[in-house]
Design brief:
The chain is built from seven helices and 20 strands. With about 350 residues, it is an alpha/beta fold. Strands 2-5-8-11-15-19 form a six-stranded parallel sheet, with no helix packed on it. It is globular and about 70 Å long. The two termini are about 35 Å apart.
Amino acid sequence: MVGNGLGFGIVIEASEDVLVSECTVTESSNMAAFGISIAASPDVDYCCNNLNVSNTAIGFAGVCEGTHLNLNNLGKSAASANRGLDCLPGTILGQQVFNVPGTDLQRHRGNKFVSSTYSLYGARHQGTQTEVEESQIIVPNLLPPYYPAAAGVARVEPLTFFVTQSIAEVQDCDFNSECFGGQAPNFILNPNSRVAARGTFTGAAYSEMLNWESGQYLWKKLNRNRDLLGQDAVIDSFYQINQTGALSRLFDIQQGFNLVLDNSILEEGRILSDSIADLLANNNLANHVTAMERLRTKWKQHQSRLNSIFDTNIANQIRNNANNIPASNRLAEREHFTNR
């Protein structure tokens, strides 16, 4: 994809369980703001992308725990760029190292800072020390291309954002399990989980956002993998306290929307499958027209059923949940208003 404006090649916002693989973002002039811009999107895999832009290759904001950056080229190839990787205050990625399944082995993720220089910084994390530690990039050495260079001098802010480990590179995207697509997130408890459970992220203007987003992510994680309960008293207490709170109600609202969508997709698939078989079995014009009429009738009936299901069941549940969400902070209040 090629752009000439001041915007973004790819934007990922408030999403999860997404694979962004083998995309190339370029620019027709030195104007593009971001190759990829990500906000509040956990459990997303970025594999083998070529972000050939001169401003910022990739930027993160908010809770993006479970991010996997594999084998991406960051910056204008063999030319000057402003930034390779930028994380705003309040950003958490999860430590960037690949744990080889079924072994104790680890591999570094093989991201390359391909610009010859970075005029501002190659990689920067503007958050607290805790946020930096929960987002560290593991590299085999402090040399290009794994470590960015600026005017001949490698530049990372803060220096603790990158950690060296003498390990091999991750496998390429054809053999990397995280890059196949459809992989279930690796739900584990980590130090960040306990901070989220306590709601003790700090950082002035960003602490409220970080505590809210990390709490939502932890609640989803616990509900999707109940085996995580019973491992930590702080996290168990968080789960019990929030059974009837805003996190629980918002999760139920999202599940309600997902149920409507899933039912719609399944029914539409059945209708189309039956109709294709009907059309193939009726190859003369008159019968073909009759089969098309049957398809239109089935489609209208499906839409009517879907609307009825939503109006009589899901919509009322969603409205009831939304009306009972306590406006505990500005972010909860905003989601409460949107869902009503």
